[in-house]
Amino acid sequence: MCVGILFDNTTRKFYDYDPVESFDSANNVGFRNHYICSVYASRLMIPRKQGLIVTITSPAGMGYIFDVASGIGKAGCDKLASDMAVDLLNTGVLSVSLWPGAVKTEAVQEALLKCDNDNVSQ
């Protein structure tokens, strides 16, 4: 999800912003692409009888963090990893879900600085 949208919407309810923009921002990059890349990766790994597909997600799939659209995507990623593991059974390819915690990217740092500056100026 675009970090700016994520932080901008944390104080708003899901019904207060555009549902298409919200859902697509949260899920087109993460959830959708995890699925697409996993299909293509599986096609390469299965003939070799080895491989590991790691789906990056977070605890937001288990409980409310940030907003509804983000939670849907994270829960979907966890389910994706679990269901792929079933289909991949006995192929030599494994599928896991990984929750790495907060990742200190430039976008996250900028969003946090903006939040801090907004709080200071109030």
Automatic annotation (TrEMBL):
Pfam family of the protein (one): adh_short
Highest taxon of the lineage: Eukaryota
SUPFAM superfamilies linked to this entry: NAD(P)-binding Rossmann-fold domains
Entry protein name: Uncharacterized protein
